[in-house]
Amino acid sequence: MEQIHWVRHRWQQLVAAESGQGRYSAPDAVPTKSSPKLHNAQLTGKRRTVIARHGPYQHEYDSVSKGCQGNGIRTTKYSLLSFIPMNLFQQFHRVANLYFLFLVMLNWVPVVEAFQKEITMIPLVVVLIVIAIKDALEDYRRYYKSDKIANGRICEVYSKKQQTYVDQRWQDVRVGDFVRLSCNEIIPADMLLLYSSDLHGVCYIETANLDGETNLKQRQVVRDLPQGSELTPENFHSRIECENPNNDLSRFRGYMEHPSNARVGLHNDNLLLRSCTIRNTETIIGIVVYAGHETKAMKNNSGPRYKRSKLERRMNMDILWSVVLLVIMCLTAAIGHGLWLRNLEEASFLIPDTTSPALAGFYLFWTMIIVLQVLIPVSLYVSIEIVKLGQIFFIQNDVDFYNEYLDSRIQCRALNITEDLGQIQYVFSDKTGTLTENKMVFRRCTIAGVEYPHEENARRLEVYKQEEDEAMGRSHTLKSRASAKSLSCKSLSCNRSSVSLHTLTGHSEGEGEETPSPTLPRHSAFSSPMEKDVVPDPFLVQKLNCLSSPLFLLMDASMELTYIVDFFMALAICNTVVVSSPNQPRHVSRTPLKSLEDIKMLFQRFSLPRFSTLSPPHTTESTRSFTGRLFARGKPATFTPSEEDKIVQLNPGAWNELIYEAESPDEAALVHAARAYHCTLRGHSLERLLVELPGMGSLAVHLLHILPFDSTRKRMSVVVRHPLTKQVVVYTKGADSVIMDLAESPKGAEQSESRQGHIREQTQKHLDNYAREGLRTLCIAKRVQTSTEYEVWLKRHAFAETSIENREELLLESAQRLETNLTLLGATGIVDRLQEEVPETIEALQRAGVKVWVLTGDKQETAINIACACKLLRSTDHLLTANCGSKEACKALLLELRAEMECGEAAEGTSGFTLVVDGRTLEFALQEDLKGDFLELSRCCRAVICCRSTPLQKSQVVRLVQDQLQVMTLAIGDGANDVSMIQVADVGIGISGQEGMQAVMSSDFAISRFKHLRKLLLVHGHWCYTRLANMILYFFYKNVMYVNLLFWYQFFCGFSGSVMTNSWVLIFFNLLFTSVPPLLYGILDKDVSADTLIKLPELYKSGQNSKAYLTSTFWLTMLDAIYQSLVCFFVPYFAYAGSDADMLSFGSPINASSLLIILLHQVIESRTLTWLHALLLMGSALFYFSFTLVFSVVCVTCSPPNNPLGVDKLQMSQPLFYGVCALTTMLALLPRFLFQALHNSICPSDTVKAALMDKLNPDDYCKRMQRWNQTQAQSKTRSLVINVEDSDIKVPDPDFRLPSELKEGSATTGSLLS
């Protein structure tokens, strides 16, 4: 009998293949743009041909694979031979380095030479060496920790010479190679799956190394390839045509052409991506299509992100001003030198020269460029890089950013925009998974117009919430879920069995065989007790129990029971969930069929007109029971039903623990909800679904197609053959705004039409109520197709699947053609709670002057409710809603809302305005002629909520605000749909949450919770900006101050370009003596403590307004530097006037005084002084004096034509030297000190006030903090008149309910009442 069943099964497969499910030739009825040949011609140059490396087309392999890369990877920039030339080439891309290279070359010209040729090279050489060492260390670490390990891994590759699979290193794999992998091995390259040990050609992979998702993904063997025995490479005669390498992880297009010219479409489910791990499958074989840097994983490996910060752009402008100042000083010296020579003709001390004064002035101009070169801060760029690395180190090691549950900390992927964190003005946030937990828990549902509130389930969620809140107060240590994974390919046991339809194979292979050791259960995503343990509604359970009652045929049941069964059938199977089991071995037994006739009679009695007459049941029983056990190395436990339509009774003990590996928390929540009602998904394979329904046992459902979810359709569907009616049924779930439009009444059935109308009306009411409670809503629907309709659709769909060009568009059209005239079954309400401290974080950001926009795809009422719960909407806000159906209506409404806002502002009636826009209105508002009106309206609102927005709209909104308002923007999200706006924003932040790592990989910074944004911006952002801005100003100050000393000396040496110090001290002054203290200043300076910055978010506004680096601040710093240089030069000048001091003796106190002034200037400017500061400041001063003293003792001819021997030694032995240094330092710093003291005493800034509060004792600190907050609150409410109706307004809590007047589709404005 089993042989008959197998023949029947193969016959059905052949019939299906001929009807278009397998090999495909374009039917005449299908409209095509071109014939296949023309289609191929259009793809020339846009695709790749892959043939087997050791197959029958080996003679063509070299020519076909000529342009394909090997599988070796290199993420390093350099090799041993290329390091020096390539590193120098990259460093000289910097303008500053080119500038100093020009000066070095200029100093080699004899007529303009200012110093010894070697001395001029020192600054540039030091900078180049420091950067080169840093680059070399980073490159070596990247090679040692990444490339060497990856290229050296071993896999099994087919060898034609040895006629078997041999061990080979990853780097030796080539396109066209056949690779065999076992369970828990890592995939070495992008491969097309050709064989799987799974009987249904399924392979399970884990993509954690690629996108961070730990749930299993299912991949399938290319259609029509034999799976009975292992693939033989010599017999593989097919060619593969696919698209060229790209970085799209979710798309793969191509086809496989067999020798018979039949083509089979290839798609993403056939592709195994590099760095993923094989799970739950004993053996797979694939052919490499992309290798090395052409793999999708490497295409997405962009490494650290580099952006140019706002402060750096401002600094570059000031460097240009420094260049202008340098040119002015050099021109002044050149003109002065020419005039001086003209007035001193035939002077006895001049060497006779035929050079004219004008030409001499021209030469001197270039000499002065060399002398005053330090005015351009070449070391500033290096210092900024070091400071930012230090800032990132402290951010990454902040314990407050550590997440115990995920064992993760903050990631800083962009290394050069830390200061931008302190200047953010707009935050654009996703809702689901960003503001909320993204732990979807089934809350309630409506079926056939009847609402089931699930009150016990609501109480259960409250208990879980209380337990979690209590647990947060207890410290505990959790190991990383990822830490259990090893990179070893073969050292792991296959620790989880897939419970697909072929759940357990086999027979015992021998009594002496070892029993597999038990393995520990493994955690699965979206499977916490809160998510799994759904408490069913007793009224709904009572209705479902009718199915298992022996008297159900005698009961006066209604058609409602059919809706209920279909509803839970859809919840259980309309998904891509992978069913697995944590423990092994598992045994499954089958028992004979029973009561099938009763079940069919039920569906006959309650069927709608679309149900057809049921065929008589099969009465043949199989006496053979299927038992087996798991393979020792992890072979999947499988079970194959002998007939596709038989009902299978499973041993309940085998299914006591099922793990659902879902791709999204919504899917997992719905499957867990269905299981709570004993509608359990038992297995999921390529062609079969095993579903257990109450009173019916386990049904094997033939899976025909899966139409996955996409952001355009906003829904997903599965096409199955119903196990009882044998009809083709389409089950669809999706957004209510889409499904309600697609649900239509069946034609020619008045009773059914009125029923469907009633169901739609009641369901819509329930959906509105769910949205007001903040629940995520999904609608469930179905459609039954006739055989003719399905065959016509199947031909078109098969053509779309085998297309390479425009494949996405064709598949979208095919799906939309199927998902019409749906029968609405019901809807679900899923709760997604707020993350902890989200309201406090948003409130703090708003107090800091940051405008928060929420961009979400949820319903309007749901988004508004969440916004109220997280305090984005306040009780005193005036709510403006914009829902329009046309562009003209949108323009009129924007003007109307703008006028109403002006009236509200004039009447002083509200504390602020909040705008709510739906996706359709947003589409109109973003058009060129309306974006101005939309922006003018939204910029005046305190907050904006964009509902039903697509990923593209999110990025467009961010770019619009960023470009038009010229503000600093931050975008934060957790999913792939947030990637576009994260990349567009000035600062992109990804949340490593429940939806993988797509957002993290595209972000500049990655955090685990939204609450971390508060400290990241208010504390670290403030510190990074303030520190870096002050350090840059300090660099400009010290360079200008010292260079002016040389400039003033030109007035006393005939503008000859001479200097009053030896060239070594001149070069080392900025390069060594004063370079280290500013680094410490930029890394550790702290104007206000972290606790105060958190408690007083208003302090963040100083960074938004760039108060630390204003234009006026820059020029005041320059004037102060000029003043100090005048004091530093002329005090020694008058002190040594009339003495016999020579040029170097005169320059010695000037150099010493300038060093002390520059170091003590930093002491005045620093807000934090520790022993480390004192050590470095004193060390710099001692280093200078030690160097100059030793230099003057040992150096005889180190600085020709001058001779510094004994000069500094003599000066340092005289009291006058120290008196001049002390007087000069005091007079130079006195104005700066007095200005700081008077300014901080008379009109202190908020930052200064907060810094003073840090010095108070705890009691006084609390009193001062309360007084501060009261003052801020009074200043905000002084001009407010609260407009309320009926009752007082309080801050909304998580149980906030919207007024019943607010409906989706309205275009009203009014006060929001909580």
Automatic annotation (TrEMBL):
GO biological process: one example: phospholipid translocation
Residue numbers binding ATP: D430, K431, T432, E667, F709, K733, R776, T856, G857, D858, R948, K954, N977, D978
GO molecular function terms noted in the UniProt entry: ATP binding; ATP hydrolysis activity; ATPase-coupled intramembrane lipid transporter activity; magnesium ion binding
Domain of life of the source: Eukaryota
Membrane topology note: Multi-pass membrane protein
Intracellular or extracellular location(s): Endomembrane system; Endoplasmic reticulum membrane; Membrane
Residues covered by region (Disordered): 503-528, 1292-1314
Positions with a binding annotation for Mg(2+): D430, T432, D974, D978
Bias kind Basic and acidic residues: ranges: 1292-1304
InterPro entries in the record: ATPase_P-typ_cyto_dom_N, ATPase_P-typ_P_site, ATPase_P-typ_TM_dom_sf, ATPase_P-typ_transduc_dom_A_sf, HAD-like_sf, HAD_sf, P-type_ATPase_IV, P-type_ATPase_N
Active site: D430 (4-aspartylphosphate intermediate)
Keyword terms of this UniProt record: ATP-binding, Endoplasmic reticulum, Magnesium, Membrane, Metal-binding, Nucleotide-binding, Translocase, Transmembrane, Transmembrane helix
Domain P-type ATPase N-terminal intervals: 69-120
A Pfam family that the UniProt record links to this protein: PhoLip_ATPase_C
Names of required cofactors: Mg(2+)
Catalytic reaction list: a beta-D-glucosyl-(1<->1')-N-acylsphing-4-enine(out) + ATP + H2O = a beta-D-glucosyl-(1<->1')-N-acylsphing-4-enine(in) + ADP + phosphate + H(+); ATP + H2O + phospholipidSide 1 = ADP + phosphate + phospholipidSide 2
EC number: 7.6.2.1
Domain P-type ATPase C-terminal: 1000-1244
PANTHER family noted in UniProt: PHOSPHOLIPID-TRANSPORTING ATPASE VD, PROBABLE PHOSPHOLIPID-TRANSPORTING ATPASE
Family indicated by similarity: Belongs to the cation transport ATPase (P-type) (TC 3.A.3) family. Type IV subfamily.
Name of the protein in its database record: Phospholipid-transporting ATPase
Organism: Oncorhynchus tshawytscha (Chinook salmon)
